[in-house]
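Q: Protein A?
A:
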Amino acid sequence: MSLSSALNSAVLGLNAQSTSLGIISGNIANSETVGYKDSTAAFSSLVTTPGSTTQGYSNGVTTSTLTNVTSQGLIESDNTATSLAISGDGYFVVTDGNGDTYYTRAGDFSTDSDGDLVNSSGYYLMGYALNSDGDSASGTVPTSTSALSTINLDELTGTAEATSEASIVANLPADADIGDSFAIDVEIFDSLGTSHTVTYNFSKTAANEWELDYSDPVLTSDGTTVTGTSAGGPLTISFDSDGQLDSIVDGGGTDVTDSATLTVTGWTTGASDSTVVTDMGTAGDNDGLVQYASDDEDGDMTLYSVDQNGSNFSEISEIAISGDGVVSVTYENGESEPVYQIVLADFANADGLTGYSDTVFKESNTSGSYVLKTPGDGGTGTISDYSLESSTVDTTTQFSKMIVAQQAYSAAAQVISTTSDMYDTLISSVN
């Protein structure tokens, strides 16, 4: 091996250690970057002149950068519901302002002024819309990123729930006189969320028998403005000799004990017609209407509870994201519903992904094509809200590598200095 070979090997060593130091520097700089995956310098020997072991050869070195894309960072808590971390395999599908698709583990998402979920680097989280049953709103589950949409919460301005069920638990006094009547006001919400009041009028018509009729609804806010037309009564309510509900029969003689229905048509608010099934108890039981003597033997009715399942218009009060990627919203009225499904992209060789700035990746021939999966399904990881995946950089390890790189660089520089001295000696001998 000649002096020129030694010089060449030393120069290659300087370049290799410079590359290694650059990688170490980049790792340390990103030690606090959310979702960052540390890189490593991979060294390989370079044989410039192949030969036998007795003849010798010029031995150099080459370097390449390996990014540990599949390494798992620590999951740390955060105070934002839309801050997301993946525990296991998979990548969030995101898009930039130009509509290009990328993949990332940086889940520091928050809503922008348009209501889109976007991370700190400006990449928008993708998923697909769900209906109230938790199924795909389009009827099909997307298998391509082109079928995904940006998750937007600004469109979810609120919700109203029309009343479809009501229940009454009360004691109609057995010691009331025939002809006595009692009224129970039931709040009813139409499909637009407006509150109305319908009065259920109970009149005693015989021993152990009562008649129920419904008033037309009025606005709950003023109690006088009629807002629709009620139908469904009168109903005949009978009790047995033990005071328990025996039957509820409509005007046509049909037993409607389990399906007593109030209908309201012609809402002045413009809402669609309402159908309300009222649960007034089970025949032969005392879980609804009963008939016993009044508490103070004054012939008064005792009302225990009136419930219904409707609600007025309400704004979003809370956002929750489950481990399987379902984005749900809870409204001020307590109603909750799923609205979006977050998907994860899975790759056969994620370490082969091509890295870009802002901790995002694109697929390559080495990584293979993506497969969209629900978090927790098919080997993908689960999602945690109020969490972030930290950088995989261990600064202690990086400092150790930096010392090794510095020593190797100094040694290679010393080889160059020694080679220079030997050249000087050679030249002076010739002269």
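Q: Protein B?
A:
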Amino acid sequence: MDRTDLSRLQLPHAACAALAERRSERIDGHTVPIAGDWWNTEITAAHLPGAPVTGPDVTQLSRGDLFRDAANLDAGSEEELLRFLWRVLAWGSGMKLRLNRKRIQAVADSPSSAVAALRHALHAAREDPAQAYEALRPGGRNVIAYLGPAFSTKVLYFAGSGALDHPCVILDYRVAATLRDTCKWDSLGKHGWPTDTYARYCALLDRWAREESRRLGRRIGLDEIERWLFRP
């Protein structure tokens, strides 16, 4: 199939309408219930740093919580970096824990390489989506086993601490389904996206965000569009 010409794709009217809602509610307040006790138990059992993921009375995480975590990671220790990873995975998984034990074990198998890849990716995510994506998925291979596009792009996204100009956004199967079915990105596959596809996706959302920023007279973050693509 020929590559879709993304310059012709327009943001659907329903997405434009959703952007009128307050960012603090749609983005910072986007909260997911999590299995905190499960994460704390499994991380401790694997003899890895980063637990507890949450306090004993915390049963949910928001995007805003993870933005605050990322803001303190510039010189993060191994423990801080892994705690950030666990919390991103907990938010991204919600109560569906499939494959997370294998992800934890993959880090336990080679913690130094996992942390090195995370450092590189988090630094690159501020400026270069392609380089950041490649840091976690070089040549389409997961550096951390079972940390595929859906979760690696969550790591890259939250690295921006909620900054409106952050260039990396989440790409998972639900976002991809809306892009294909509603926005008509016909050549977009269902999973396993290569680096070039992720870079094109981020560039498309950047164009849409700039167009909507001019229309609305305020800065629109790429994630405000991703949020609609995830759940229109």
